Amino acid sequence: MIKIENLHASINGKEILKGLDLEVKAGEVHAIMGPNGAGKSTLAAVLAGREDYEITAGSVTFLGKDLLDLPTEDRAREGLFLAFQYPVEIPGVSNVNFLRTALNEKRAYHNQEPISAKDFMALVREKSALVELDAKLASRAVNEGFSGGEKKRNEIFQMAMLDPKLAVLDETDSGLDIDALRIVSQGVNALKSPENASIVITHYQRLLDYIIPDVVHVLYDGKIVKSGPKELALELEERGYDWIKESL
Amino acid sequence: METIVSNKLQQFVVGLDPTQLPVPHTLQLMAQNHLLAKDFPTTKSERFKYTRLAKLANAQMSNSLLLEKGQLSQHKILTDAYTVYINNKQIILPTDLPSGLQIKLNTEDPDAFHEASFYDVFGALNILYAQNGISIRVANNCTLDKPIQIVQVNSGGKYFYRHHFNFGENAEAAVYIVTKSTIDSNSFAHTHFQYDIAQSARIKVYKIQDCCAGHFDFHEDRAIQNATSHFEINTLTLDGSFVRNDTMVAVKGEHAQTYLNGAYWLKEEQHVANYTTIDHQVAHCESFETYKGVAADRSTAVFNGKVFVRKDAQKTNAYQSNSNVLLSDNASVNSKPELEIYADDVKCSHGSTTGQLDENALFYLRARGLSAATAKTLLLQAFMEDVLTYVKQDEALAYVHQRIADRFSWKY
Ligand SMILES: Nc1ncnc2c1ncn2[C@@H]1O[C@H](COP(=O)(O)OP(=O)(O)OP(=O)(O)O)[C@@H](O)[C@H]1O
Ligand SMILES: [Mg+2]
């Protein structure tokens, strides 16, 4: 699905990713944990194509294509989805209108006909029910005035609508209450299939009770420094990161 | 009356006949005094700091063509309205007016003329050279069933017009002022609008400015509002390479509400200047002013918003904002709020922003698969949309959307 090799990225001359390697295969769920400032969101932003970052070395292959060569929108159309740690509020742009445009631009990219208004509305109903997102929120301006938890649900709703191959969830669990956590996890699990994969960035092993990872990685100082089975998350929760830093 | 002006101004008025309209004599004297020893303003003068008039001074106007009614009616925007057509020297008035609405040539209603302030040489020239105009009266307690539509089609030449509106007590009306021009004509028009708004009248004016590149479009609005009246001017500038709006509202009665809204979509070499003045003379009034624009290519926009709150105007609530998005490094906006507050118990706020589109929002939309162009368009439309929400008439809104779509390839 995706293969990241020796990725180096910097912003304003400061190197943040310092030779990161990661491979995720179809059907897998990988969790990335790591202390604040380690570079987790940077990795997500670089994968999505944020232009503020300079890639100084390394490569990313996504479904056989050179990901770093594609503009942001084409990465999305190829099937990459980033659920933002901080979803952006966009006053005046309606959630469903923009999703319909996004869906149709993706379909045009794959030489498919635009979705009919009827099918689109049916899809909106089905997917908003999946994450129990209020239908009113679905049609409001993108994230404007949404609570923290509603923004996160809206991310998963959009993910469900766009049906990506690889989803990168950047701390989608933070700011969610227990019920919302369960609902959002169900949403993610419902989309799981042998053909797609997810990378779940989180600070809490709690999420991993709901979304069972195949591999847990520790990202520290711009690199993956440790990988292990899901039990590694429990160990991190108990012992923190110091023992890992010391072992380096 | 003999008027002594110099140089370029003198050349500018060559061929124009002094006004035959019953403009008050004192006003004519003031205009003459204003023009004494004056020339075309330069960028040294405060009100023309960002406006280069050389283009106008040097422009050769094309011969003025008289259009037939059939040609003129193609320029209307509303199908169902009391429509006046103005083209060069001719004015075509509507027939079959309802009781309570009177539309005449201004010469047939000399009582409508009174003194009105002017701030620049063009205002003074209008007083001295206005050829004609209309007078519209809406009677007390009359609610018009249809809007009034004034369609001015410019097709060469230089014209000064003076229009008067008298809205009676508790009258309610919507007025659409559409300025257009024939393709490729070079023309100049300076139009003075005077609005006398009696107590409790509710009046909404929509200006739709959509002229070609060779036309110079100057508007001067002077409104007087009485107690508990509601007055709105929405100025939508869709096209025209040189547009200047000078709007002044004197609020003279308590509990009046004033709305001045403006929107401009600029590209290429367009220059659009909006000068506004709201003069709060009495207590307990509110004014809301929102101007928004986008400027692409080498276009320039000017916004100058004056708000006076006089000593007696306690409990005034005045809100003003001007926001702009620049779409090119060569476009520019000069935005200047000017608040002069002499009362102590008032709420006044103003804000002015000029910038680029929000990068985070652009990235977010693109990360969902929208092309950069589509994402930009969505954000720009959203940015401008709140000014358009004032346009409640479907045909007018459809026209505005269509013209923006034509010029900027935005999809509505
Ligand atoms: N524009 C910038 N200029 C300089 N440094 C930056 C910039 N943006 C981010 N950084 C730095 O990059 C580092 C990594 O940030 P990143 O957001 O990727 O961390 P993170 O692992 O997601 O942390 P958290 O767990 O707090 O979300 C931080 O030290 C941050 O301060
Ligand atoms: Mg982060």
Protein model, in words:
- The complex is a heterodimer of chains A (248) and B (412).
- With 248 residues, chain A is an alpha/beta fold.
- Chain A has helices at 40-48, 72-78, 95-109, 117-130, 135-139, 148-162, 178-190, 207-210, 231-239, 242-247, and strands spanning 2-11, 14-24, 29-33, 54-62, 65-66, 80-83, 90-94, 141-142, 166-170, 197-201, 215-220, 223-228.
- Chain A has ten helices and twelve strands.
- In chain A, the strands form three sheets. Chain A has a six-stranded mixed sheet, sandwiched between helices.
- In chain A, strand 4 and strand 5 (65-66) form a beta hairpin.
- The longest helix of chain A has 15 residues, at 95-109.
- Chain B is globular and about 65 Å long.
- In chain B, 49% of the residues are buried.
- Chain A binds chain B through residues 48-51, 71-73, 75-77, 81-82, 84, 87-88, 90-93, 98-99, 101-103, 105-106, 109, 141-142, 158, 162, and chain B through 358, 360-361, 363-372, 374-375, 378-379, 381-383, 385-386.
- The structure holds adenosine-5'-triphosphate (ATP) and magnesium ion (MG).
Number of strands of chain A: 12
Spatial shape of chain B: globular
Strand content of chain A: 25-35%
Distance from first to last alpha carbon of chain A: 29 Å
Helix vs. strand class of chain A: alpha/beta
Query: Helicity of chain B, in percent?
Result: 10-25%
- Listing every helix as H and every strand as E from the N terminus to the C terminus, the arrangement of chain A reads EEEHEEHEEHHHEHEHEHEEHH
Q: Would you identify the CATH architecture of chain A?
A: 3-Layer(aba) Sandwich
Distance between the termini of chain B: 53 Å
Q: Strand order within the widest sheet of chain B?
A: 2-1-5-7-9-11-13-15-17-19
Main beta-sheet strand count, sense and barrel state of chain A: 6 strands, mixed
Mean pLDDT across the residues of chain B is 95
Number of helix segments of chain A?
A: 10
Record the strand order, biggest sheet of chain A.
Answer: 6-9-10-3-11-12
Spell out the helices and strands of chain B N to C. Answer: HHHHEEEHEEEEEEEEEEEEEEEEHHH
